[in-house]
Amino acid sequence: MAESENTETQKTDLVGEDKNVNGNMEKGLTQVEDKEEDSSQREKNVSANADSPPETDKKEKKVVKTKVKGKPSKDDIQVEQTQPVAESTEANALPENVFPLFMTSKTQEIYNCKCDEDVTIENPFIMIPKADILEDMRMRAAVCDFHPFKQEILDYPGEDILIMYDYEFKYGQNFVVALTEEAKELLLKSTEEDKTEADGQAAEEEDDTVYLYVPPESKEWVSQGSEKEIDEGILKEGRRKLKVSVKRIRKEFGAAVTFEDRNVSDAKDGSVDCPSSEDRSFAVARIELDKGTQAIHEMTSEGVQTNWTYPRTATVQTYPREFTEQEKLELYDSASCKQFVFSAEYNFHLALQQNEITSVFYIDWHHLGDSDDTFGSKADNHMKEYQSFTDLQFSKDKVITCIQWHPVTKGVVATAVAEKLSFDERIDQSARVIMTPSIILIWSFTDPIHPQLILEAPDDIYSFAFNNTNPNYIAGGCYNGQIILWDITSHADRLKQQRGSNRNKKRTVLPGFEDPNALKTPIIHYCAVSSIDHSHRAPVTDIQWLPDHMQITKMGVPQENITNVSTQLISCATDNVVLFWDTKPSKVHQIQDDKTKMPMGIPATFKYLDLTWKPLLRVTLAKSEPGGDHAPIKFSIQEKQKERLTVTGAKSEMKDIDLNKTASTSQKPTSGKEKTLHGVKTFMYVGTEDGEVVYVDWMPQKDQDSGKIQTPKPAFYHCLHDGPIVSMERSPFFKEVLLSVGGWTFALWKEGVSSGPILCPAASNVRLSCGMWSPTRPGVFFISKVDGTIDVWDLLDKTHEPTLTQSVSPTSISAIYPYQVTQKQQLIAVGDYTGTLHILEIPWSLRHPTANEVNAVSNYIEREVKRRAFVEERWNFREREKREQEAEVKRKIGIVGAMAPLTEEEIEMKQRLEYDQYLAEESAFLRQLGIIQDDEVLV
C-alpha cells in the first residue's frame, strides 16, 4: 500500500475455493477488481464574493474485473485499485427569482398543498392562483407566509404561481416559489435534468461490471448418502388398494347422481381433521416437519387412497408470484395495457372531478347525528307509541268516532265516543242508551289519567270541530241530526297547564271553606241546539267551520267577511242534504230584548239560537237520473282557513287574538255591504254512502223546466269505491288534490279532471276505515284499516303498495289525525273500537320532507293528469271507431245517411242480419261435425 497526494488503495480479495470432500475435484475462480472508494472531502472556499457557491472534489472510480480460468491457488488474489480524479462542480443553487418559502400547516390547508398528501417527492409541483394569495394577504396581512414577497407577487404577470415542495430542505425551507415566468421554466427544467442525470449515473454503474462464464469440469459422482433421503421422500404404496362397492335399490337405477362441495366457512367448525388411522393416539415419528398456517380456509379438491375414519385438519402454505422488472416493462408496453388505460380514462377523470367537488376527507361518521333530534333519528322507520288515553267510566267499551287537536294549545286533544250499536240495537236498547251520557272528552298531556273537560251532548256525537278563530267555541253533530254548540271559555285556563304542573294545586283558601268539587273534572253542558224540525233526518257524519275570510249568503253567494271571525259552518248527513248554518243573530234577535235566563252553569253565548236555530242554506244532492238521491257522508270545499295569510302571520294572529272581542264581534249581524268573492270556487266534493264521489255546486240556480230556485244537478259523479266513503281530505299543499277512502279502496282526485281519479291502486284485502294527509310531507298520507294497522303511503317511493305497515291496536281503528307539534316532533292520534286513544310519534323519515319534494309531487300529479287525458282520448277514439264501423255496415246494406245515428228500424234490421249470419255459421259447423245432414235446416 502506498500513499501520495491522492489516496490509493490496493485490496486483496480471495474469491473462494470450492473443494470436494474427498479432494478429487477442485475449481477456482479468481476475480480481480479495481474499485474506487469515495473519500471526497468538502472544502469551503472563502473569497470576497459571498454568493460564490462552494466547490466539492469528487473522485472517479474505475473498476477492472478479470476472470482467470484454471486452478487458482491460495496465493491468487483480487486486486482493486482506486485512482482519484478531482472534479469541481458548483453546488445546487436556485435560479434567479426563485426563493425558499416556509409554509405553515394552516397555510397548507388554505392552498390545498399539504406535505406528503397534495405534494410528494414524485409530484413536488403545485400551481396556486394569484388571486387566492392576494385574498389571503388581504385577510391575514403580515401573518400570511407570502407577505415577504408581496411586491413580487403583485408584479407577477401570470395568473398562477408555481410552488415546489423541498422534501430534503435542500434550500433551507419546505417550499420554493418562482416569482417570474422565466424562473418557473428554469425551475421545471432543472428538476427534469436532475432526474435524467441520476438515471444515467445509475445505468452506468450497472454496466461497469462484466462477468465471464467459466464452464464447470465433469467429475465422477461420489455418494454421500443423499440417495437415502430421496428414497424416503418418494411416496410408495405399501398396501393393496381398497375396493369400494356402491349399491342402489332397483327403482333408483339410472337416476342422476349429484355431488356438491361445501365451503368450510359456511358453517361453524366446518374444518375437520382427516387422519389416516382409526387410532387417535397413533402418531408417526417425523424426522422433520415443515408446516405453515393460514388464517382463511380455502376449499380444495384432492383424491387419496386412504381410510376415511378420523378427520384431521391439513394446512398448506403458498407464496404469491411476483413479476420481475423485465416482465413489468413488457406489461406496461403491451397493447392490452394501453387499451385498458384508454378505456378507463373517462372513469378516472370522473373520479378526479368527484374528488374535487366532494371533500374526500369529510368523515361521515362524525356528522351522522347532526340532523337528528331528540325525538327520533333518521334510522327510525316505525312509529313509536308516545302516550295513550282511556277512561274506565266514560270511554270504556265505546268507539271513538272523531278526533280533533286543539288549534292553539299544544298537547290538548279531544275525542268523541259513542255506543257500538246498530240502528236496530239502539231501538231495542233505547232505555239504556237514553240513560247513558253522550260526551266529548278533552285530554291533555299534563294528565294522561283524567280528562281535563267533559262536554255533554243530547245524543252520541259522530263529528265535531273547533272554531277557526275562537277555539273555545265547539260545534258538533248528533246522532239524531241536531247541531249543538259549546262554549268552554270559563274553563279554558284548565287546558293551558304546562306538563309536570300539579293539577291538584289550587289557590289558598280559608280552612273549612274548601270546595269538594274543585278536583273533579268539570262537565260542560251545551249552550245551544238546533231546531229538531229543521235539522238533519239522519246522524250528522261531518261538520266543518267556514274560513274566517268568507261567509255565505242565503243564495249561496260567497262574500268577504269583514270581521275575520268564523261564524258559519257546514254539516252533512245521509238524508241527502248538505246544510249551511250561521251563528250570528238575526236582526229580530238584536231588536228584541231576550230576558230569559239560562240554567246555572250554562253560558248564554248562543242563547238566541237554542231550539230555534235553522239552516241558512240547504243543498239537495239529487241524482241526474231517477232512482233516489245521493246520501252524503263526507264533503270537502276548496277554501281553507288563513289561505290569504302567510303561515307565520296566521300563527301569530291566532296566538294574539282577543277572544272576548271575538265573542262580541261574532254576535253582530252582517251589514249587507260585504263584497262578493268572485275567486272562491262554489263547487264541493261529496262522498256518499254508496261509494260515489260527487262534484256539485252549492249555489242554487233557477230550474229551466219548473222555474224554481234549487240546487243544480251534480257536474259529475263516479261510483268508484266498494263501500261507504269514510274520508274526503284535501292535501294541505295542493288544494286541488283530494284523498277519498271508502270500502276496500282509496283514490286521489284532481279538481278539474272529471274523467276519473288520477291514482287508484288495487283493492286492499282489509276494509279501510280512515285516511289523512301528512301535515309536513306533500307525498305522504296515512290509511287506517279495520284490522288495527296503519298503512303509510309515500308517492315518491312507490305507488303500488304502502311504504310502511304497522299494527297499532288489536281492534279496529275508527279515526286518525296527524298533528305537527313542533319542528322536531310530529304526532298522530289513533282511536279504536275499545275507546282507547293512542298517541304515536312519527319517525324522522316520514315527517322531514326531502329536497324539492313539493315540486316532485307536483310533477307526479301533472304526469298522472296527462295519463288520464290520454286514457280519455283513447276512449273517445274507440267510440268514434265503433261509430264508423256501424256506419260502414249501414253503407253495405244500402241505408242512406251513413253518419246519422241509427233508428229503431235500422237497429232491428241490423240485428236480424246478424242473427241470420249466426244461424248460417252454426249450420255449417254442425254439418262439419256430422250432427245434421245437408238437407236439414235449423229452425
Automatic annotation (TrEMBL):
Which keywords accompany this UniProt record? Cytoplasm, Repeat, WD repeat
- Where in this protein does the record put region Disordered? 1-89
Q: Which domain of life is it from?
A: Eukaryota
Q: Where is the composition biased (Polar residues)?
A: 79-89
Q: Which Gene3D superfamilies match?
A: YVTN repeat-like/Quinoprotein amine dehydrogenase
Q: In which residue ranges is the amino acid composition biased (Basic and acidic residues)? A: 8-20
Where is it found, in Gene Ontology cellular component terms?
inner dynein arm
The answer to whether UniProt assigns keyword Transmembrane to this entry is no
Q: Where found in the cell?
A: Cytoplasm
Record's keyword annotation contains Ubl conjugation: no
**GO BP terms, alphabetized:** cilium movement involved in cell motility; inner dynein arm assembly
| Gene Ontology MF, one | dynein heavy chain binding
Q: What is its main location?
A: cytoplasm
Q: Where is the composition biased (Basic residues)?
A: 61-71
Among SMART domains, the record links this protein to: WD40
- What protein name does the entry list? WD repeat-containing protein 63
Q: Taxonomic classification, please?
A: Eukaryota, Metazoa, Spiralia, Lophotrochozoa, Mollusca
Q: Cross-referenced InterPro entries, in alphabetical order?
A: Dynein_IC (IPR050687), WD40/YVTN_repeat-like_dom_sf (IPR015943), WD40_repeat_dom_sf (IPR036322), WD40_rpt (IPR001680)
